[in-house]
Amino acid sequence: MKRDQSPVLPGDGPTDYARYMRTDELLDLQRRPEEMLHRDELLFQVVHQSAELWLKLAGAELTAAVARTEAADPLAATALLARATLAVRLVTDQLAMFGHLSPVDFQAMQPALGNGSGAESPGWRQVASVSRQLGRAFAEQLTARGDTLRTLPPGDPTHRLATAMIAWDEQVAQWRARHYQVALAVGGHPPDGSPGSPATVLAKLTEHRFFPELRPTRPDTDLAAATHSRPAEA
């Protein structure tokens, strides 16, 4: 007997998949062909809209990691932070799609973007804000324990959280560096050097870290070395 697949969920859509995933709304968020100045607007929007979704997930995982850190549960915080790190890795990987977008084509579609800038991304602003919260929560937990980075044994759960925080910082840095390369190759920006230019701002951001204090100068206490012994999502 054929299983009844009639939708049972509320909402619009011919199937429960369409209703749960809200595919009608999702697939209507891109400009229609008749609205486009250039066909590659679809590529441009899909990359950026999907990035916002991944950043939304990363922000949610980071927020939960802050709560677990404040609750003195570093193992749970480490697992959540690994999920956020993987989300940003996927955001970074999809920038490869811009290898199919030439500077000439980007210039043709640029009027459609108005004065928009990636710096205005709500997902990124949320991620940056919560990353700073995580840094404060971690520092407070160290103080509450009466520990420092130098006194944390390698197997300690808090040491593992610090390692995951370094991995997060490095993945964000890779994303920024890749974004900078795309801006030069596709966006038509000149190399950095001109004060206030988009390329100069992006170049400086590639050196930024949310948790620079997690990189002590003494080799025997360098938590960064641990990031090379396990995957970023571990």
UniProtKB/TrEMBL annotation:
SUPFAM superfamilies per record: Indolic compounds 2,3-dioxygenase-like
Q: What biological-process GO terms show up in the record?
A: L-tryptophan catabolic process to acetyl-CoA; L-tryptophan catabolic process to kynurenine
Where do the record's region annotations for Disordered lie? Answer: 214-234
Any single GO molecular-function term of the entry would be: metal ion binding
- Entry keywords, A to Z: Dioxygenase, Oxidoreductase
Q: Does the keyword Oxidoreductase apply?
A: yes
Going by the entry's taxonomy, the superkingdom of the source organism is recorded as Bacteria
Q: Does the keyword Oxidoreductase apply?
A: yes
PANTHER family in the record, alphabetically? Answer: TRYPTOPHAN 2,3-DIOXYGENASE
Q: What name has this protein been given in UniProt?
A: Tryptophan 2,3-dioxygenase
From which lineage does this chain's organism come? Bacteria, Bacillati, Actinomycetota, Actinomycetes, Micromonosporales
